[in-house]
């Protein structure tokens, strides 16, 4: 069989097995307060409290992905049908979980939200729950992808940006910046979590282009005018675009059904 035929068969196999709802089995613990999650490795800080009703999560390195997994949304439900609902709850990744005994450590509010009505405190008493979970698209109604200029920025010599309200089911893996109207792009590097920086800051109003991946492939997202010429440290700016792609993964176990709330 020729090399070309092998490639075609491989691509067909990927397409056949592709799923956007890979189902995983694990355990989930909780923090008694969400402050540690909001100030976690993704760098969201106080902005995290506006995400998904403070249903925040620290994820293991395979999900955190050196920061590219920051902002990813997951739906999880515990497997004790006496205590927990079939819908479970949704959480957003804001921190790194270094404990490999559970895939996630979530806020107490998110942990209780998996419970049937009136059973929240009973679930909390367990401390750790057996769960199943899957990645789902993040949805921010009425909000575009947004950037915040970090306090470490030193205009005009150093720029650090934090990305907020990333929709869809994708990961940002590359960021370039240029003056609006210019084709001379400067690459930014991931400082940590959701924060990207550069010491080569173009003058004037700034545009961004992002490389985002969704499973097997990636694409460019171009935000043509993001920061005005008079941008300020601590400023929050609407990119004018939103990412809504759905990732496709090769799943051993796939769940295409919606878990109704």
TrEMBL record:
Highest taxon, organism lineage: Eukaryota
Name of the featured protein: Uncharacterized protein
Organism: Smallanthus sonchifolius
The organism's taxonomic lineage, starting at the top: Eukaryota, Viridiplantae, Streptophyta, Embryophyta, Tracheophyta
